Amino acid sequence: MSAAPETITQRIQVAMPGLSRLQRRLAEAYLEDPARFANGMLGDISAATDASEPSIVRFCVRLGYSGYREFRQHAIRELEHRQNGEPTREGEEVRQALLNGEREAGRLSMTEIRELLRLSAVDALDVAFGGTNDRAAETIAQAIAQARRVVILGIGGSSAIIAQEAHNRLFRLNIACNAYNDSYMQRMAAATLGRGDVAFFISSTGWPRSLLDSAELARHYGASCVGICPTDSPLGRVLDTRISIGAEAAREIDRFQPSPLRYAQLFVLDAIAFRVASLLERQADQSLARARASVAALHGVIPHQPIGD
What we know:
This is MurR/RpiR family transcriptional regulator. Keywords: DNA-binding, Transcription, Transcription regulation. It comes from Endobacter medicaginis. One of its GO terms (molecular function) is DNA binding. The protein has 309 residues and is of the alpha/beta class. It folds into three domains: 76 residues, Arc Repressor Mutant, subunit A (Orthogonal Bundle), CATH 1.10.10.10; 43 residues; 158 residues, 3-Layer(aba) Sandwich (Rossmann fold), CATH 3.40.50. It is built from 14 helices and five strands. Strands 2-1-3-4-5 form a five-stranded parallel beta sheet, sandwiched between helices. Helix 7 runs antiparallel to helix 8 and helix 11 packs parallel to helix 12. The chain starts with 7 loop residues before the first helix and ends in a 10-residue tail after the last helix.
């Protein structure tokens, strides 16, 4: 006996062939915008879908709910799960099927690999979106925008690469910055900082000794210390402001699969860089225009060309 569908989307998929024309329209409206149903009262949904309130209640009952109230409670719960980075049941089932298939057959096809990578990337972005504290991100952006100098520190795999990407994002805004991934250089760079400077740390674990030492040095000399790293880690505990992104962004992955953690880190970094540019508006406009002109001199103007990407 097969298990009963657990999510609203699953119930709709099972029930769709037997739905009336009006119920099918309501189902399609939910699939297109679940947040509207999660956030809307019965009257709101009636007005938005041009369906009577009794018809909407019958639709909910048809899917196995006691009425619109229970349907909406499930919609809210599922929306919160998505926003908090908790993978949907459908995604988890596909992921486990792929991983179990790999264990049985000893390999994954390119189609399966692409689907597994897509699911992992989406989950990592959901974790980043749900886990990003807007107030902390704003504080970091403000500190960078006002800084005399920014030193970006990351070590290891994706963290070192994301640190370099942070430099790539910020220097074009005419921000004095450098990125370091060598432990000796990190300590020396931190020791040259002072008041008005920012040390920006990227770490997936928050445990590397060189980063912790560099943070303590930077704080000792009066610099602000901010970063993207787990809050409950040695590094996270000494930073003035941090956005907590860590191993939770890389759950249930195949042993040969590249970690999707970098997608989460990059999402947070892009949000911060975007906000910094907005804060610097005129300075950023002028600097980006110069950067675009310098690149255009190499091969002419290319429509919609990213600036140095």
